[in-house]
Predict the 3D structure of the following.
Amino acid sequence: MPDSPVLQIKPPSPELAAKIANTIRFLSADAVQKANSGHPGAPMGMAEIATVLLTRFLRIDPKDEKWSNRDRFVLSSGHACMLLYSMLYFQGYLTLEDLTNFRQLGSRTPGHPEYGEVPGVEATTGPLGAGFSMAVGMSIGERMLAETYNTPKFDVVDHFTYVLMGDGCHMEGITNEAASLAGHLRLGRLIVLYDDNHITIEGDTSLAFTENVGQRYEALNWHVQHIDGHDCQAIAQAIEAAQSETTRPSLIVARTIIGKGAPTKAGSHHVHGAPIGDAEIAAGKAAIGFPNQPFYVPPEVAEYFEVRRGELHALRQDWNQLFGEYEKKHRSSARELIRVLSGELPKQWKKAVPEFPSDKALASRSSGGQIMNKLGTVLPELVGGSADLAPSNNTEIKTGASPDFIGPGSFLGRNIHFGVREHAMGGVLNGLALHGGFIPYGGTFMVFHDYMRGAVRLSSLMRLRTIFVYTHDSFYVGEDGPTHEPVEHLAALRALPRLHVWRPADANEAIYAWQAAIERRDGPSVLALTRQNLPTLDRNAFAPARESLKGMYILWSTLGKPLDVLIVATGSEVHLGLAVAKALAEEGRGVRVVSAPCLEAFALQPEGYRKKVLPRRPRKRLVLEAGIIQGWEGIMGETGLFVGMDDFGISGPANQVAAKLGFTPEAVLTKIREAGW
Amino acid sequence: MPDSPVLQIKPPSPELAAKIANTIRFLSADAVQKANSGHPGAPMGMAEIATVLLTRFLRIDPKDEKWSNRDRFVLSSGHACMLLYSMLYFQGYLTLEDLTNFRQLGSRTPGHPEYGEVPGVEATTGPLGAGFSMAVGMSIGERMLAETYNTPKFDVVDHFTYVLMGDGCHMEGITNEAASLAGHLRLGRLIVLYDDNHITIEGDTSLAFTENVGQRYEALNWHVQHIDGHDCQAIAQAIEAAQSETTRPSLIVARTIIGKGAPTKAGSHHVHGAPIGDAEIAAGKAAIGFPNQPFYVPPEVAEYFEVRRGELHALRQDWNQLFGEYEKKHRSSARELIRVLSGELPKQWKKAVPEFPSDKALASRSSGGQIMNKLGTVLPELVGGSADLAPSNNTEIKTGASPDFIGPGSFLGRNIHFGVREHAMGGVLNGLALHGGFIPYGGTFMVFHDYMRGAVRLSSLMRLRTIFVYTHDSFYVGEDGPTHEPVEHLAALRALPRLHVWRPADANEAIYAWQAAIERRDGPSVLALTRQNLPTLDRNAFAPARESLKGMYILWSTLGKPLDVLIVATGSEVHLGLAVAKALAEEGRGVRVVSAPCLEAFALQPEGYRKKVLPRRPRKRLVLEAGIIQGWEGIMGETGLFVGMDDFGISGPANQVAAKLGFTPEAVLTKIREAGW
């Protein structure tokens, strides 16, 4: 499909373009005024940019917000959401009434753009830099799908990814990480408009931000242009130049006046985050000849977009025809593309991973890597990488279609070198998931979750199928010491709503953890995997590993004795629990060991099952986990014991650290005896 | 004090310098070999840089690692710690035996540099970029003290801050944030040596990192030089040029060969993170004429440093003399400088803050800001700022000495515009605390703790007195919606070992929260403050606010009735708890309300007190907090009720959101009745 000639048919006259911009400007001001809350300055300042994007560039289908080849548009400065909502109104996704309900409970126009809640919003934004990083992920995804599925005659994937961002986004570290990666990969279809308004919340950007942003992006291998952000012609030319530059992402530094259109407040930080006032709005409208009427849309603006939406829908129909021909000529590619975009899994995919025999000890990072590789043979949509720890995380897929690394300008592959950029990795994974066509995963040491927590939170909030592979999940890291030993991380991860945290006890539990993460459609999953070897349990002697899908299950029990001690453990500590159980059983006591790989999955089980696994009696409940107690008190009950940690770890050989911290059967048995059990 | 002429007296001959570098190189290789764990490549590659710093530049006192005017040296690539430990050995802080115990349990040479555990280590490093950001903080601190306390005749504070860092640090977002801030502030005494070895864990940097780092730093207003990192003369000249450049921080891009000295493995990622092998070491030593003897130190190298340490100590004595004269001429400045460097507080400082009257409702972010301002009048060491949210966080100190903002090249002030750089802010705060002379604080919205969690963890691990001011602490943020509403953050913060989390219920509890944070010498504190107004409790009717220092206290009880319902709440929910208690009391029931501003402080109270506040009976325990249940189950017990959240927040006016989520007395009372209480 040639690049958007249809879109050039009827650019509005300069007068009409100005009117559209002013309409957007005051729709935003009016909505903030009515809500008595919000950010009018940036939308008013970016009104011309929005106008040019809407009238000349953005390829979307007004009748199908989910069209796979739509241009992606991300407002990274999410606080400026009234700009986006105004755009979505003209695109046909929101109504004027929606705009009047800005920031109200239950409205489709919340205080920041929310993916899944607002039609046409491509990503939840607000935390600065996040939107930009997700757009980088979308742009990577577009190229990966294009190079995998397009043919010389059929560019069925060829959209652009547009981003609007402000100074705040540029100050955030995640943005530099993502920009460095985007420049490295030469993402020629990523076009970023920078709302360079020189104003932040504390005042002029000269207070804290005096770097040369354009020069920085040039150093990051970007194509950089500088324009007047209120000159529609200049904006259009810059975007065309950016489209023509196919080997580098583009940054268009658009000098704007924040709050432009507000007669006395424009250009100051007072217009950033509060309503500008009725008088200011009235004077502003008077100056441009608008009636003083809230949410006013001039009839010619409404008419223009009516026609425009028709054009855009026709364009989509052209694509449908193209895709129809593609389907005929390339049946299996088309079928696969449709499937991966739908998020559905192929039949029989679970059979790709046979269970591990029990004769070999394996670190769960190793079994996890093997499982992922087997899944890779049947799931081409499984793509990802590591933040420069692939050899340690075992996150390279060496099998299946295109088992290569993507690289600069080359996207036929499934492995990504993210570099030491955890936060951007998280954003890119989210962007891949949002784009569609992928089940993305990313690895790092669990302790460095801290560097990417913002992205994991957004993934949870958006309910994305993103998989975070966190290896080196406890003090068993050993010599690297407390900076590298997770202590509070399992608790901190479980604290995140909608996130499922899996900590398998052996290679076979790891199979089902991976399976659950892939099957889950309503949120992200963490796989917490060990650095150190774990025995592979003999499932003839223990409950089937498949039971672990229930989150908790009875792994082993003494027979024929009343239950006296109930042991609950996760991951590597399951083996410690089994050793303790065995010792207690040898003393003639009734013992049960519950393996608890995923508390969130367990919470979803029927009450009957939960009560069966964790009956109210016995009162002697022992919980084992190489982390803090937080989150376990409910399961322990008031009379339970906890073997875990309450301070940071120590540097030393792992087994010595374990002994020092009391993670031996002897130490646990001593604790049990001291408790009078 | 003129710039270090003494240090130039005896630069070693080129031959001796080479021998020193080779000694450092193989001490590192030997230690990793013996430990069978660690990172030999970077230390071997940076051996000449370390040699030049040790022999020509670093001003330290071998007999007093805590000398206030010592040069600060931070190894940001902490995994290369054997380089640092070799340096500390030559500086006299570690013994050769310490080096042989590298990475062993209980040794003074853990797997990453640990502040407080290893003499001479200025900052715990390992998480990449963190060390660099802390060095930026140290350099800011040096200038702030210098401009405050130096006089034309007496430069009692005039040290340099040196950093070694690698590619990994440069890829991390925190580094760009901190570098942008450092360039903005024109930190002329910050000198960074970049170990540009082109190798990362996954392979060559060309796999993921092809930006022009030097050009990026130029865009960030840095002075940038490029040298051969194995040429001692070039290194020395570059550092001299960096010292001469007083208006910009300096980046010296030193091209090095990772693992230099390893005959077959040098220059590859195989030398990054694993022992290079006995044979490789033997061959390497043979090539430079060293005996094949582990931990070999040539006698002339040992002799050289013996003399060197004497010189350095003499230099310190010169400074002592200078300071003695300064003390005579500027008695009160000297006394204050000594005091702030000691970390001791002035007498009577607590009297600066009178309690608030109960006639006015105040958001705790407002009362917090007022308290901080009053403390500022008596504590010149209290300095900080916000990540571009000062007007919302109320974190500007407008009173006391030098109530200005520091700015480019101008450091006589106490307020810092951090820009939208949360993670770097955290690092800078830690650096200020590590430097000494400051009680640093930093503000942002609580939800953006996620962006700086790595820094808060390091603060906790290092037990620094850093204060994190997190306002907008719940869904009462309202219209900004779920991206801006903390839900899991209180739990995630409490999960961090050694961190104290304060969530005051009113203006007067906020006084004691601030007081506790300032008085605490063994770790950081969080102040969780509200956006919305809170009533100021009339302390004639309720327990004294001072009781809140105990972490939990009985705020109010019915009299003369057996205790039936025990209510525990924090922050804004204390008022909800009181309303519920009042309703229950009116029904004739015995009720107690416990305010729980700090669970960690409570845990430190004597058992008797804790049992008094939270007796085993009654069984009806109601916990109220606008966050998740995690961490409360132990206090609730098995029969308790929790009023909180289990999912993300919603956008809408705060009180409507509260009603929707069940945070009204009516909704809580209904819940109580449904529970059959």
Summary: The longest strand of chain B covers residues 190-196.
